[in-house]
Amino acid sequence: MNSSHSHFVCNDELGICCPADPAALFLTPKEKKPVEIHMFIDPLCPECWVLEPFVRKLQMEYSYYVTIKTFISHSGSNILPSSDKELGRLFKEMANSYNATACRTGMPCNGDVWHEQAITMPYIANLGIKAAELQGRAIGSKFLRRVREALFLRKKNIADKETLIECARFIDGMDVEEFKKDLNSESSEKALESDRKTTKEMNVNQLPALIFFGDDVNEPGLKVEGHYPYEVYVEIIEELVGKPLKKCPPIPLTDFISFYSIVSEKEISVLYDLSMEAVHKEMKKLKLRQMVDEIPTRQGYLWRYRKVEEVSEKTF
Q: Which CDD domains match (predicted)?
């Protein structure tokens, strides 16, 4: 028998409570969980974007055991040269990196953004994410997702304050006027500086990076830099918990799509353990039911939930 508690469903057979919808993944836990993961990312880093579905999968299947805390760090993309020639060379390298990452992983990230947009102040994007977090971790997490969608899927300049404000308007429960003030506040500056300090203290040299901490405060965290198979992350959590993990069932696919509004086939493949072919067939079925629209990209299709109001490409 199952009992429902807001965004969670408590499964008597499993003896744990599981997320009932995607909103549950962003709620601040009421009690300490046995494992805390510190995630270090750069919002402009394509490899960090590739990690996104694996992190969501950990939250969906093992949220009973795991809390994830995000730290905004910086890669080479945040260190810009002064000359136009060197800047042009860097933009070309970033574009190639985006396209190569997309081809290798299947996670869409269009390198054309570096040719079409003048992303010369990446610091602004980081500051915006910390400003959003001042309204709570759930708001901050949803804002981070929206910002990365704007960059990787819509080719928008997330180092532009107007783009960040437009992203904020699409976050339920977010105070946009407060966000505008916080974009220029000392509190956001201090929060970003705190993330930088933590990155340095943890000796994080490569992004993305995950550091796993267990209950024993005397034990150092286990640092995992770069990408590994999903099973590796699960094994680390199980070792820290000290017993076999109970896995929650997946959130309904239609709930996942409606919550994020735009998703990639790669994300669905990772989250639901489906082949890319099976994902495409499933999404075609939803298209026939007029629930989603398909958006062709260089690396397959994106799928947009149809009940969401159409957004003008000129504004977002």
A: DsbA_FrnE_like
Class level of CATH domain 2-241: alpha beta
Q: What tokens does 270 get?
A: 């990772």
Going by DSSP bridges, is the β-strand pair 209-213/292-297 parallel, antiparallel, or unpaired? Answer: unpaired
- On whether the CB atoms of residues 250 and 271 are closer than 8 A, the answer is yes
pLDDT in tens, 260-278: 888 999 999 999 999 999 9
Query: What average pLDDT does range 155-169 have in this prediction?
Result: 95
Rounded distance between C-alpha atoms, residue 18 and residue 248, angstroms: 6
- Residues constituting the chain: 316
Question: Six-digit token pair at 63?
Answer: 């949220």
The secondary structure of residue 78, as a DSSP letter, is G
Q: Both tokens of residue 152?
A: 């990787």
Residues 6+ apart with CB under 8 A from 50: 101, 105, 107, 227
Counting residues of the chain whose pLDDT is more than 90, the rounded percentage is 66
Q: Provide the whole-model pTM.
A: 0.89
Please tell me whether residue 305 adopts helix, strand or coil conformation: strand
Question: What is the domain partition of the chain in residue ranges?
Answer: 2-241, 253-305
Q: Does domain 253-305 have CATH number 2.40.160?
A: no
153 closest CA partner among 8, 26, 311? 311
